[in-house]
Amino acid sequence: MSDYRKMWQKLGLDLEAHDQLLAVIPQAYGDVYTSQAKRPEGMGYLDFVMSEIHGLRIKELNDLREAGGKVLGTFCLYVPEEIALAGGAACVGICGGADWPSPEADAVLPRNLCPLIKSFMSFKLGKVCPYFESSDMIVGETTCDGKKKAYEVLGEYTNVYTMHTPQMKDEASHELWLKEVEKFKNKVEELTGNTIDAEALAKGIGIVNAKRAALKRMNDARKANPAPISGRDALLIQQVAFYDDPIRFTDSVNKIAAELEQRVVEGKGVAPANAPRILMSGCPMAVPNWKLPFIVESAGAIIVAEESCIGHRYFRDMVDATATTEEAKIKAIADRYMKLDCACFTPNKERIDNIKKLVEDYNVDGVIHYSLQFCDPFTVEYNSVEKALKDANIPVLKIETDYSMEDAGQLSTRVEAFLETIK
Amino acid sequence: MFVGIDIGSRSIKLVALNGQGIEDYKVVDTGFNPHDRSLELVQAYNAEKIVATGYGRHFAREDFADGVITEIKAHGIGNRYLFTQCRTIVDIGGQDSKVISLDATGRVADFQMNDRCAAGTGKFLEIMSKTLGFTLDEFGPESLLAENAVRVNSMCTVFAESEVISLLAKKENPRNIGLGLHQSIIDRINSMLHRVGINDDIVLSGGVGRNPCIRQLLEQKLGRPVYIYEHPELAGALGAALTARDAE
Predict the structure, then answer these.
(1) For the segment B20-49, what is each residue's pLDDT rounded down to a tens digit?
(2) Nearest to A33, CA basis, from A50, A21, A19
(3) What's the average model confidence in pLDDT over A291-316?
(4) Which among A416, A422, A423 is the top mutation candidate for probing chain B, defined by the most B β-carbons within 10 Å of its own β-carbon?
(5) I need a surface site. Which of A95, A316, A409, B88 has the fewest CB within 10 A?
(6) How many contacts, defined by CB atoms under 8 Å, are there between A and B?
(7) What residues does A281 pair with on adjacent strands?
(8) What DSSP assignment string belongs to A231-260?
(9) Looking at the complex, does the CB of residue B55 fall below 8 Å from at least one CB of chain A?
(10) What is the DSSP string of B82-144?
């Protein structure tokens, strides 16, 4: 641990505040994860990753930097990981899932703002996120007004590059996005000093496609009844997808998937076969935002899929790997990202179709729509999601919350009552 | 004998059922030790089965209850037993208010619950009545004697309290302020009712059912009768007791 303290100090973390943060995680992690019965053995890898989340992985990133490599910090699925990897950079998700109050962040942001934005600003200004401090560039995007404007504020404290993500899917938007992806490629080349050619792109695409395929394989096993893995564990795997070394991660997830496939063959599950099967839909849940999945599964349900950025949206679509030229590969990457069905788009009928498809594919009994407070795209879009699901006789519960625990009692009453209605 | 116990934030309600129907019931303040208080209550009965509901249901399950259900399901079952045509339930509890919609067979089809704070709950009524100088029992009847309603802008319990105090300082009639406060609660309930939709008979459940002003304003707003059991606070415990009795 002493090595890590030195490393954290060198990164400029506020060691005292960081100690407090790290002290909270093991308790929460124990309550939510390691106390579960019948966990897949492969989850031991995730336990290790989590225990080293601010340690070993940060050391690896710093080793990379010392060897001349660069680290990109991101908050959104729109940042093309393939290109970062093609440039020899590492791509990591930045902390933003905890109620970590920072008076410095409160001074620069409005009170009524999405908890994720408040959280990342708190992590940066409170100097408690080693991923932030290890990033050579933070890549923002214009997916919502809150983030878009917050990146301007963040830019006063760190190196921020913002991608212009479109909000429609017409021809002009496709053209705009293709240009943005090209610009991003140039930016990564400039930052890393490496040339990103067709060969490098093929490598980046290969690594990320393999990671998405492993996640898809792991998720496919969750279609079985009884479900072979808890929703909490699956969520954790999907959360770690944003932090860990992609090749090591892919390998471990494939091992977990194989274990789950075996469980399915043997008819072994983590919950009884009659447990209500829930699809969580809506806003992403960044580490360590495990509140709602924990409440849902403690109430006797099993979460079988996540319709969110930390979930199906992340691994559903692959980049077409058959394109050969550099230009065609860039276009294939841009096309893949334009398939994302984030609520920042209008219209966004694909998302509703995808939710209904997941309900069918995963044999879902009820949908819990989760949105972070003040997240306009998802809270407003709930209206059309609810209508479509109710028309199809699919039970749906709306939950709007933040990272604090103050509504935990209320939420468990709502969730339990919802489960009572679908049993 | 089958016992249902509803462990709420303000009071604990118990209903004991025998083959014929309700044999006994109890309502006590939750006090500072809800745990011992509930245990004491149930131990007085030689119950075949105990089902708990309300905020204290989880500790009850660990200690003495054979099963638990949420307040939402409990009020659904209890009120459906009391009013066979009941499809819509308004339950203003100590900490939260709920609107519950039942399907034609009496199962919970949908529900709405207020968010977090005490706005529009039983606790809100309690604090406002005190601020206005009424007992909780007087609050409804006195508010009905108002000449005109004085609007209170804030529904936040703390802010509403300071607003009420400044209205009193301006010599505003407490009855008029009381009516205004009741109207704000009804506005909230009304919007929750519209989100779940209104079907067949509406029942006002929970202790707030004893408040005649809430009932009258709700009936006026909806233009239809609102039904209330003579012991409205027992509906949740009754629902739990029925669940204990009917479980196989």
Answers:
(1) 899 999 999 999 999 999 999 999 999 999
(2) A50
(3) 97
(4) A416
(5) A409
(6) 33
(7) A307, A369
(8) HHHHHHHHHHTTTS-HHHHHHHHHHHHHHH
(9) yes
(10) HSTTEEEEEEE-SS-EEEEEE-TTS-EEEEEE--SS-TTSHHHHHHHHHHHT--HHHHHHHHH
> Which residues of chain B does A413 touch, with a Cβ-Cβ cutoff of 8 Å?
55, 70-72, 113
Per the listing, tokens 């306009």 go with A376
Which of B139-144's residues contact partners 24+ apart within 8 Å by CB, and which partners?
A: B139/B178, B139/B211, B139/B213, B140/B182, B140/B210, B140/B211, B140/B212, B140/B213, B140/B214, B141/B212, B141/B213, B142/B174, B142/B175, B142/B178, B143/B175, B143/B178, B143/B179, B143/B181, B143/B182, B143/B213, B144/B179, B144/B212, B144/B213, B144/B216
Distance of residue B18 Cα from the nearest chain A Cα, in angstroms: 25
Kindly identify which residue of chain B lies nearest to residue A398, measuring between CA atoms. B112
Contact B109 A417 (CB under 8 A): no
Calculate what percentage of chain A has a pLDDT beyond 90.
94
Cβ-based contacts of A400 with chain B (< 8 Å)? 115
Best of B70, B103, B243 to disrupt the A interface (most A CBs within 10 Å) is B70
**Partner residue facing B69 (CB), from A400, A414, A420:** A420
* pLDDT recorded at residue A168: 97
Task: Please indicate if any CB of chain A lies within 8 Å of the CB of B137.
Answer: no
Q: What percent of chain B has pLDDT over 90?
A: 89
Chain B residues whose CB is inside 8 A of the A410 CB are 96, 113, 115-116
Chain A nearest-CA residue for B73: A417
Is-contact A319 A77, C-beta < 8 A?
Answer: no
ipTM: 0.92
